[in-house]
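From the methods appendix. Each design record in this collection lists the tokenized structure first, followed by the designed amino acid sequence. Records were kept in a plain field format so they could be parsed without special tools. The example shown here is representative of the layout used throughout.

RECORD:
FOLD TOKENS (208 positions):
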């Protein structure tokens, strides 16, 4: 009678070997690494999409494209700035399109450059927040360039229909105490989540 037949007849099997344990552990580690890698890729994708949203925000403002600019905001989005509050895409559209408004009269007509960043942001599913700086430059009559505005900003974002939109923006001009009032999340957020950094440092499993 063969050894395999004896095992089958007795209804028992050899206990797991150290090699079996190692293979099982390696499989578990691989599954965990794949989950972490998927989360990392999703997080990086979302960050890139949000950064591009802010770039589109500036491009639309500088080219006077009221529709594109208004659509960087959610349909019920709000902008809370030192000059007042805007809510809804109709008001955002008018802010860029109005020929006698501040944007056409004082910014776009001279040639402008809207910049955003650097940014700290965190993403949680279909919601995110970002904190950072915004500067608007305009061209002066002597062909030099000057800062029109510098501001501290907090953005709340949401993903709708597969794309990120600004749900709420709080903005204050650079001035004493304004940074503390606007930047409310960055410190508590701390460094990027540990699984992201640990994954990038992880090498091949050691050979025993």
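DESIGN:
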């Amino acid at each position: 009678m063969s050894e395999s037949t004896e095992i089958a007849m007795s209804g028992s099997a050899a206990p797991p070997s150290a090699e079996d344990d190692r293979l099982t552990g390696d499989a578990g580690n691989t599954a965990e690494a794949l989950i972490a890698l998927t989360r990392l890729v999703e997080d990086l994708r979302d960050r890139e999409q949000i950064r591009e949203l802010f770039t589109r925000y500036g491009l639309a403002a500088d080219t006077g494209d009221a529709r594109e600019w208004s659509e960087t905001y959610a349909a019920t989005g709000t902008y809370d700035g030192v000059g007042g509050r805007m809510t809804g895409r109709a008001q955002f559209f008018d802010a860029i399109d109005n020929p006698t408004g501040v944007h056409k009269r004082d910014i776009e007509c001279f040639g402008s450059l809207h910049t955003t960043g650097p940014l700290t942001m965190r993403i949680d599913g279909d919601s995110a927040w970002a904190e950072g700086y915004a500067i608007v430059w305009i061209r002066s009559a002597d062909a030099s360039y000057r800062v029109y505005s510098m501001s501290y900003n907090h953005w709340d974002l949401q993903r709708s229909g597969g794309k990120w939109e600004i749900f709420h923006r709080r903005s204050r001009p650079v001035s004493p105490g304004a940074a503390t009032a606007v930047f409310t999340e960055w410190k508590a957020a701390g460094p990027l989540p540990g699984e992201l950094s640990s994954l990038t440092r992880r090498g091949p499993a050691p050979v025993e």
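APPENDIX NOTE: Residues 18-63 form the longest helix (46 residues).
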